[in-house]
Amino acid sequence: MPHLVGDHIDAVQQRWQAYRIDGSFDHFVEFTLSLNSLAEQLSRLRLPGLVRQCESLENAALALFGDPSTHPLAEQSVMALDQRVGPLLGAILTSRHASIDAERRMNETIASIGTPEWVRPRTVWMVVELNNGWAKGLRGQLSFYGFRVVESGWDEELPHREPPFAIIFVPSDEQMDDKKLALIQRARSCCPATQLFYVGVPRELDLMVTLMRAGIDITIQREEQAANLLSRILDFIQTREQESFKVLVVEDSRVAVAQIQRALNQNSIQCEVITDPSDLLSALDAYRPDLILMDMYMPHCNGVEATRVVRQLPAYQSIPIVYLSSETDIALQVEALRLGGDQFLTKPFNPVVLAATLKTTIERNREMQRSSRNDGLTGLLTHTAAKARLDAMLATLPHGGQLCVAMLDIDHFKSVNDSFGHPVGDQVIRSLAWLLKGRLRGSDLIGRYGGEEFVLALTDVGPDEAWVVIDRIRSDFAKLPHAHGEGSLRATFSAGIACFPEYCTSTELIHMADTALLEAKRSGRNRVERVDDLLSRKQHTGSPAAGANLGL
Questions:
Q1: 28, 156, 266, 300: most buried, per Cβ within 10 A?
Q2: What domains, with CATH codes, occur in the chain?
Q3: Which residues, at least 6 apart from 355, have a Cβ–Cβ distance to it below 8 Å?
């Protein structure tokens, strides 16, 4: 678990102790903001159990928020909060230490075998009745895609091991009883950072709510296929590295600006302030914010007029705009929203609500943008989005850093579509996407470059290690059966690799990796070629084909 989580833990602990000492409203505000920041960080790391525990404590604190006159809180309320702070931070630290220990063991394993293990083994527990055919098929698929599956029965205790990546509950029937709920609750308690799935729930709201209250994160209905469950589990691997939140504040009151800056800084939200709306357009171009926090009444023009101007500009038609004003007339608020605003907050504002509103609005806007950047069939980045991500990876690569790009193409894919139909072809593409998700790291770039072609970018590795990792995936993909109406088929892919710093731009890397891919195709397919190997062969043999392919 990243060191940043430790910083958030320290912040919560220090601000809570500061409040216990002097009981000031300001320290309680800072404590509540630190809880919100911790929950946000845990959410980014895909730790739903810990997120839920942290948000529960935050809600309890917000219920006691009040105003300066209500602080210090009664001793009974302070003790109630104190009894929840310790267990929360303890659960986070336990998960953090388990992660560090697992990382150490992984490094020792890699050192002993001398080959790249690449990703930490991801363990999945399955709670299932014996001889369940559906579960047996799922276990085989999970194992193939890189998971270590540990099974136990509904009448058994959960395994006494470090918390798994996910726990899948597969009941023998759709009946829910107290015994099953108790087992789910124990799993939630002992594995707060684990994703909990329940398979086979009927379409009944009350039952689904009961399961979620017990600790289930995701319910899968009986009629949904195992492929959907597998896809959902694999999606959790590819975590998105969030950029910092950037807010442009348009506010002419110095007092309000100071309050806003304090609330946003406490919650890790960057902000730029302008006091004159005449500077709005130039500030947008220079700062490129995720959101505009707009006062309603300012010199020269009001917030609604400024918003209408912003909405005229194609680059900013979809940027979220949140009004912050002392205006209490509901009709005017509605009109302001109708003319381009997204949210309306009134002064004086609650700093926790302000920060939460801005973060939520930014996240929802980002999610809509992501939907346009991800391929509908595989969930991977599209051609354009993958190219942009590669540019960003190169721009942030540290001095002396390494990065390898690979281009993959499924062999004889047209004949798969022609012989078995496009649905089978789609399944072949989807299976390769799943395999890449399962075998690569969350920080690696995986994109569908077009049709049956994929692009990968692996950081902190040289060409030798990149070749080993991709060739292992190639070998395993060739063994994977793809079902169709008359049986099953097998497919293979070819790949080419080019690396930084030999090639410095995304265009060069993709072009040279594609050149190596073409050579792999010409050399018989179902193989991985490296650009540096092609150069070496050309120098030693004078191969005209290699030289022509490399454009040399």
A1: 28
A2: 3-111 (1.20.120), 122-235 (3.40.50.2300), 245-371 (3.40.50.2300), 383-549 (3.30.70.270)
A3: 33, 36, 263, 264, 266, 267, 269
